[in-house]
Write a structure and sequence with these properties.
Helices cover 20% and strands 30% of the residues. The chain has four domains: 164 residues, 3-Layer(aba) Sandwich (Molybdenum Cofactor Biosythetic Enzyme, Chain A), CATH 3.40.980; 56 residues, Molybdopterin biosynthesis moea protein, domain 2, CATH 3.90.105.10; 84 residues, Molybdopterin biosynthesis moea protein, domain 3 (Molybdopterin biosynthesis moeA protein, domain 3, Beta Complex); 72 residues, MoeA, C-terminal, domain IV (Beta-clip, Beta Barrel), CATH 2.40.340.10. The protein has a six-stranded mixed sheet with strand order 8-5-7-6-10-9, with no helix packed on it. A six-stranded mixed sheet has the order 17-14-18-22-21-19, with helices on both faces. A five-stranded mixed barrel has the order 23-26-25-27-29. Helix 1 runs parallel beside helix 6, helix 3 packs parallel to helix 6 and helix 4 crosses helix 5. The longest helix is centred in the C-terminal third of the chain and has 19 residues. A hairpin with a 2-residue loop joins strand 9 and strand 10. With 404 residues, the protein is α+β, with helices and mostly antiparallel strands. It binds adenosine monophosphate (AMP) and magnesium ion. Magnesium ion (MG) binds next to loops.
């Protein structure tokens, strides 16, 4: 059985090999947060556009301050957005504000804290080196320099950079459309009243939310029954989207028909089980040129396997590189021990308010237990290579997306 790291690699390799280009759209800058860029963005001019002071103080000729203290003639001032006309001559200085352009002739700024002003003159108490407190024109970017490439995900610095260069209409990759198809005769839609033995279709709700959190566009389909013929029709519909995510029907039961239907349709499988708990029966492959994931139906299994395997697929079909798992280390509050030789993802709560992050496994009822998951902000990872840890050991923790 594939370790989960290998299964993720399989997803990434398969999608890389397909060489699909995302569909594109234009959005206003204000709508681009989280989107993936689909064009090159260049600097419209040098940045900074002029030699810029990084401090409030006095623009000087560094050579004039070689021996301090020295008194210089104060011949004017320049504020941000303003200009000092006329070159600065030997023995002169100009009061300057942060963000203002350095006067011609000056080559350094002495911080106001290192000066004493008198009428018409300034006592410079510290020597300045040439270039001190000055960001030269073009040192951040030269005019026409490539600043952002297709595939860049728009976070706040990227949006700021687009804004800085006046790029207000942004070409982005359209989020991939992800069909969501829950299966199971026992499953009714959430607005329906289940009988005593039925359950509501919570997976379509959580999967749609996970698709959105990952940057995809969810396309929820009505729940499919466990009948070959009906299931096939729904699968065919789902395969019209970029990705089809199924929940349920991938285990060993008599009515677990998802793989049967997909094989019948000529699907090729990248994997059909992964060495993890929860989520072992997860499958991934391609069918009719589209990608599908069959995730086990127990809600926590569905959630964990989505995070592990579907998120990188959504990244790549958005034209972005697949994001690594955002796991980090935390100290165990209490010992953990697992028996099954699989990598375990246990609902857990991490607390970092008292120094080192400390993680505590939460008591739970197994992979159907959504109640406990709402109290968990992360999954504690117990790798198959080491199934037992003592209190105080450092372990890997995978944040629940959106909860940390
Ligand atoms: P399966 O993977 O089809 O064997 O389903 C395993 C269990 O997951 C079922 O017995 C249900 O309790 C639960 N389950 C399956 N599908 C859903 C769903 N769409 N929403 C919530 N729970 C589900
Ligand atoms: Mg089922």
């Amino acid at each position: 059985m594939l370790p989960y790291v290998e299964a993720r690699r399989k997803v990434i390799e398969t999608i890389t090999a397909a060489k699909l280009a995302p569909r594109c759209a234009y959005v206003e800058l204000g709508q681009a947060l989280g989107c993936v860029l689909a064009e090159n963005v260049h600097a419209d001019r040098d940045y900074p556009p002029f030699d810029r002071s990084t401090r409030d103080g006095f623009a000087v000729r560094a050579a004039d301050t070689a021996r301090v203290p020295v008194t210089l003639d104060m011949v004017g001032e320049v504020k941000a957005g303003g200009m000092y006309t006329g070159p600065l001559r030997a023995g002169q200085c100009v009061q300057i504000m942060t963000g203002a352009g350095i006067p011609v002739g000056a080559d350094a700024v002495v911080m106001i804290e290192h000066t004493k002003s008198a009428a018409g003159s300034v006592l410079i108490e510290r020597a300045a080196e040439a270039g001190q407190n000055v960001v030269p024109r073009g040192s951040e970017a030269k005019a026409d320099q490539l600043l952002l490439k297709p595939g860049a995900r728009m976070g706040y610095p990227e949006l700021a950079l687009l804004g800085q260069v006046g790029h207000v209409r942004v070409k982005i990759a359209k989020p991939p459309r992800v069909a969501i198809l829950s299966t199971g005769d026992e499953v009714v839609e959430v607005w329906q009243q289940p009988n005593a033995l039925q359950i509501r279709n919570s997976n379509t709700i959580s999967l749609a939310a996970q698709v959105e959190l990952a940057g995809g566009e969810p396309v929820p389909l009505p729940n499919a029954p466990d009948h070959i013929h009906d299931l096939r029709k729904r699968v065919e519909r789902g395969l019209q989207e970029d990705i089809l995510v199924l929940s349920g029907g991938v285990s060993m039961g008599k009515y677990d028909l998802v793989e049967v239907v997909l094989r019948e349709m000529g699907a090729s499988f990248g994997f059909d089980a992964v060495a993890i708990r929860p989520g072992k029966p997860a499958v991934f492959g391609t069918c009719n040129g589209r990608f599908f994931f069959g995730l086990p139906g127990n809600p926590v299994s569905t959630m964990v396997t989505f995070e592990l395997f579907v998120v990188p697929a959504i990244d790549m079909l958005s034209g972005a590189p697949p994001r690594p798992l955002p796991s980090f280390k935390a100290k165990l509050a209490a010992p953990v021990k697992q028996k099954a030789v699989l990598t375990h993802f246990l609902p857990a709560a991490v607390d970092w308010t008292r120094g080192d992050p400390v993680v505590k496994e939460l008591p739970w009822q197994g992979s159907g237990d959504i109640v406990t998951l709402t109290q968990a902000n992360c999954f504690l990872i117990v790798p198959e290579s080491k199934l037992e840890f003592a209190a105080g050991d450092w372990v890997d923790v995978l944040p629940r997306r959106g909860a940390l």
